[in-house]
Amino acid sequence: MLELHDFKKSYDGRLVLQVPDLALAEGVYWIQGPNGAGKSSLLRAIAGLTPYSGRIVAGGIDARCNKKAYCRIVNWAEAEPVYPGFLTGRDLLQFYLDTKGGSAPATAALLEAFGMNSYLEQNLGTWSSGMTKKLSLVLAFVGNPKWILLDEPLITLDTAAQATCLRLVGEYAATGCSFLLSSHQPLDGAAFAFETLLVCNQTLERQL
Questions:
Q1: Which residue range is the domain that position 74 belongs to?
Q2: Out of 37-41, 42-46, 147-151, least confident range
């Protein structure tokens, strides 16, 4: 269960998004809304990366009261990730494994699925946007997350990588992992069921 209570996100005193009370059961959710509606701001707040007012609870863990435990069950991939250029992909992956946990075989399978083994030892500053995007997705699936937040997961990916991403969402969802997806690209052909959430007039609501 993911719960938001009296949630508000503002920038410089301007309210961007509010969610009075929302409880999401296990599942896959597609967040829709126009540019600037607050979709990314919502996901970043749920990921624990930006301040907000109100309460966010995932799997019974309050994001503020036990942030370490919360961050081990809530994973995140940014729309256009940027990482320190002096690190290698292997460096960053190992950091995530040390903090998030996860098995070596499962991680190796993710790298193989996205075809990343040939350049993982290169500095991130030399990577293309598509290569970096694949790494962000691998990092989002690392460990034992209960919720995975993917902001525009399909952009900058080639067709094969897009299919891999959607396949992994379906496979992980089948094992009980839940997802919040923000995407302007259609998910109509995705091999998993999802519920749509709309961001409209600064409020997040279910589509009836």
A1: 27-49+69-206
A2: 37-41
